[in-house]
Amino acid sequence: MITSNFSYMASIKNYLSLIKFSHTIFALPFALIGFSLAADDYLDLSTFIAGTETDHSVMSTPWFWVKKLGLVLLCMVFARSAAMAYNRYLDRHFDAKNPRTAIREIPSGIISDKNAIWFTMINCFFFIVTTYFINELCFYLSPIALFVILFYSYTKRFTPLCHLVLGVGLSLAPIGAYLAVAGAFQWLPIVFSLTVLCWVSGFDIIYALQDEEFDKANQLYSIPAVLGKKQALAVSRLLHTLAAAGVVLAATFGGFGYLYWVGAVIFVGMLFYQQSIVKPADLSKVNIAFMAANGTASVLFALFVIADLFFHTRYLS
Questions:
Q1: pTM (two decimals)
Q2: pLDDT tens by residue, the chain, 317 residues
Q3: 3-state secondary structure 270-296
Q4: Local structure of residue 279 (DSSP, 8 states)
Q5: Which residues pair with 279 in a beta bridge?
Q6: How far apart are CA 303 and CA 102, in angstroms?
Q7: N or C: fewer beta carbons within 10 Å in the chain?
């Protein structure tokens, strides 16, 4: 029995490693921003949490928001798990040849090809089912969302713009979370999504610097492989500058207050920090830039944005 439990836990750990579950820290905070924006549009968050909300509609009940948040989180987990597992499945032969990635679960034999593709299909199925219980719009858009996040896995085979496609995939988080509640599009979540697009594309270019020579040798496309390290970093800096501009635009467009600006300063500061520690001739700090800087940026930024909404410092409804 103990051996069986150990094997079961080891399998869970292997699949969590396959999908890089820790990388959820990038998109999830922005999904929570989108969800909180929708909540703020329909409720006074401070009075709702204090239990003094006077609106007695369905949307003012705690169960409505708990259910919606739970469904949004499930969608995030299912969509991201499908995308990552499919990416690992599709790239398994390249990963096996690359010394940096040969230890990944599929090329090393820890997870079989068959199990990886089954895992992908199961997560796609549950993603679509979950959107059905959110609202009609999310359900009808779910195949499009899946197409975007799965299509990314093919792009490195024919375009160096693959980083932007990844950015588009993660940028769906704030829009999707807002749609889950509101059932309609609104400009502010779209501004946040464009910010995510530029931010993710910029740091994915930094991460791809490690495989510049491998990509060239194997006819794979990436901005570092096409432009070289120096020019690739210049493109990354441009994208992160646009991301910083997006944060400022969201602040002014959304009428946020001082707490938002604290988070914005941290977020933009982390963008400049990661750009400063990665050099064309020195990639030793790529992982720090990729995981630590971006994880810190997204989590702290989301906390301050949500706090701004909660304490009602936003001056536009």
A1: 0.90
A2: 444 444 656 678 888 777 777 777 888 999 999 999 998 887 655 555 545 555 545 566 777 888 999 999 999 999 999 999 999 999 999 999 999 999 999 999 999 999 999 999 999 999 999 999 999 999 999 999 999 999 999 999 999 999 999 999 999 999 999 999 988 889 999 999 999 999 999 999 999 999 999 999 999 999 999 999 999 999 999 999 999 999 999 999 888 999 999 999 999 999 999 999 999 998 888 888 888 889 899 999 999 999 999 886 555 54
A3: HHHHHHHHCECCECCCHHHHHHHHHHH
A4: B
A5: 282
A6: 37
A7: N
What does the DSSP 8-state code read for residue 221? -
Closest CA to 140 of 152, 128, 150: 128
Encoded tokens for 201: 């594309």
Structure tokens at 313: 């410092």
Q: How many CB atoms lie within 10 A of CB 232?
A: 23
Identify the CA nearest to 156 among candidates 69, 214, 81.
214
Distances (CA, A) of 193 to 19, 39, 163, 256, 288: 22, 17, 15, 17, 24
State the Rg of the chain over Cα. Answer: 20
Residues 187 and 42: beta-carbon distance below 8 Å? no
**Strand segments (E) across the chain:** none
If residue 190 lies in a helix (H) or strand (E), which one and from where to where? helix 187-208
- Tokens 């750990």 identify what position? 13
E strand or H helix at 173: helix 162-182
Round to whole Å and give the CA distance between 74 and 168.
20
Cα–Cα distance, 304 to 33 (Å, whole number): 10
The gap from C-alpha 309 to its chain's centroid, in whole angstroms, comes to 21
The secondary structure element, H or E, covering residue 129 is: helix 113-132
